[in-house]
Amino acid sequence: MKKCITLLFLVFSIGVYSQEKEINFSDLNKKQIIDSLYKKLEEYYIRPKANAAINKKLNENLKKGLYKNILTPNEFALKLSTDLVDASKDLHFRVMYDPSWAESQKNIKEKVTQQKIKAEELAEAKKKNFGFVQSKILEGNIGYLEFNYFEDPAIASETAASTMQFLSNTDALIIDLRKNNGGVMEMGQFISSYFFSNKELPLYKYYYYEEKRKKIEREMWLLPSVPGKRLDEIPIYILTSGGTFSAAEWMTYSLQNLKRAIIVGEKTAGGAHPITRTVLADGLSVNIPFGEVKDPITNMDFEGKGVMPDIICKSEEAVNTSHLLALQQLSLQNKDSNTIDWFIPVVKNRQYPFNIDVEILQSYQGKFGKTELILESNKLYFNWNNITTLLMTPLESDLFIVDGMDDFRIKIVSENNSVTAIKRIYRNGQERVYKKD
Questions:
Q1: 30 Cβ partners below 8 Å, 6+ apart?
Q2: Distance in angstroms between the alpha carbons of the first and the last residue of the chain
Q3: Of 128, 127, 108, 106, whose CA–CA distance to 118 is shortest?
Q4: Which of 5, 116, 132, 267 is deepest in the core (most CB within 10 A)?
């Protein structure tokens, strides 16, 4: 059943959006909404003992006049969201103002309504490429995949599968979930299934409540088959931040506990509960945590705690940190070590750039056969035969990479503190010397 494992994404969204014309709210409207919210909590919330305290807190805020100056439903929805999270400490709570969606739920069982909703969801998902932002090959044949939410594989599996096949010949894979706020857990299941040859492994066990608090218990396992080639033998690195949330956290937590991925970055947000969305009064709706998920290995979750990375670093450093780690690990395995070692200093320099005094760069200027080194705006450039000019980036005080040229580097040759030549050092170990004119 889809809704039991659909986790909220965009919980950290600052605004609550609606194309509907907003109306002024009276205190009576607000009281009706709070009362309707309490009824939904009683029906769905996984912590029923907390319902009375939450309801009391919201009504106290109303009596104190904390909602008095809120005149629009969007503002009220945002304030209720904040107060619900504050009272419950559950990050998945969110109130939204969307009269069109609320109205559609009245006729949700009608086939025409269902088709309309699905068509709108599909059109919106296509605009976002089903959450897949970019996939590319980094230096050293390291795959990189960034996706920012988990779409339902029922509509996104083709895009997901083609992305995985693009990355299928890499020697390691970095999965960037730093901006991923969650979504549908089946996408985590779909992607994770590519990383194992053993197809009989449970990923999650969970329960949720249907109407009248009927408890349903389920398990989610690796899929027995996936389209295309599996990536079951290469190292996996997952990047996280404080914004990594919900289903993205579950994929991270599961693969960490299965010893299948190394987690790099910052501790995640700590939202482990699945949600259901239900209608309140006056065009508002609410996401309510209505179930719990447990990891089959730890029999625990990360609610309120987050997932702790194996390697902690600043979020903005996670790509280079994981890229360097992947290259170093492959080098230790002697996997095309000459090529791998060629790229290690490049990645190191990207995170901690090497700087050279301008006076030293000035001394490097000159003509060396068909090559000329030119200093412009305190940067050294490689000009070949007056045809092309490329930026030179220092790896060491006398060693440079040339922008766009991966097969060779330039080393400055000096004798008695004077530049006498440059040397092209090639990836295969060959060298060519060009004396200064």
A1: 62, 67, 70, 76
A2: 75
A3: 108
A4: 5
Distance of CA 343 to the CA centre of its chain: 25
Distance CA 427, CA 141 (A): 15
Tokens standing for 99?
């009269």
Walk along the chain (437 residues) and give the pLDDT tens digit of each residue: 334 344 333 333 333 444 445 566 777 789 999 999 999 999 999 999 999 999 999 999 999 999 988 988 999 999 999 999 999 999 899 999 999 888 888 877 777 777 887 888 889 989 999 999 999 999 999 999 999 999 999 999 999 999 999 999 999 999 999 999 999 999 999 999 999 997 788 999 988 877 777 788 889 999 999 999 999 999 999 999 999 999 999 999 999 999 999 999 999 999 999 888 999 999 999 999 999 999 999 999 999 999 999 999 999 999 999 999 999 999 998 766 678 889 999 999 998 999 999 999 999 999 999 999 999 999 999 999 999 999 999 999 999 999 999 899 999 999 998 999 999 999 988 999 999 99
Give φ, ψ of 28 to 5 degrees.
-65, -45
The 3-state secondary structure of 120-150 reads: HHHHHHHHCHHHEEEEEEECCCEEEEEECCE
86 Cβ contact partners less than 8 Å away, ≥ 6 residues apart? none
Quick check: 164 and 194 in contact, CB under 8 A?
yes
- Give me 70's structure tokens: 């809120």
Which secondary structure element, helix H or strand E, spans residue 62, and what is its range? helix 51-63
249/241 Cα distance (integer angstroms): 10
CA distance 319 to 314: 10
Rg (Cα) of the chain, in Å, rounded?
28
Query: Is the CB of residue 292 less than 8 Å from the CB of residue 263?
Result: no
Closest C-alpha among 376, 327, 378 to residue 349:
327
375 beta partners: 380
Q: Are 239 and 319 in contact (CB under 8 A)?
A: yes
